[in-house]
Amino acid sequence: MVYQIAYGVLGNDADAEDVSQDVFLRAYRKLGGLRDPEKFRAWVARVSLRLALNHQRAADRAQRRNISWFENTALPAASAETEVEARDFHSRLRDEIHCLPEKLRGVLLLSAVDGLDTREVASILGIPPGTVRSRLHSARKQLLRRFSP
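-> structure tokens emitted (149 positions)
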């Protein structure tokens, strides 16, 4: 479950494995602070989601620093069109999911990608089940709008 959450956020095996190791190390160190042992699964899932999002933000910042010199250079139109045509559906979907606001992306990844039900997602994120359903609806609606002609 930890790896699946990390992979759902990051989309990269190596990064997901790194985050998974960090999650287990942090869980081991903080296990004594867990008040309710019955909520261990939700607690570890929440830690996994937070660390994966933090890892993604750090990678995004590093990428922006590395390509900041390139921002003012425009790509030729034919090159951009060729790139768009070459993308397959799953690649575009992953990109669109990552463009969603964090609160919608988190709910969508946990629910649709990781297959968790509404109560599990609510427990992991610490929000009511109704909010999970609302955010999931909003995320799907935004994706549908982006894929509609």
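The two ends are 36 Å apart (CA to CA).
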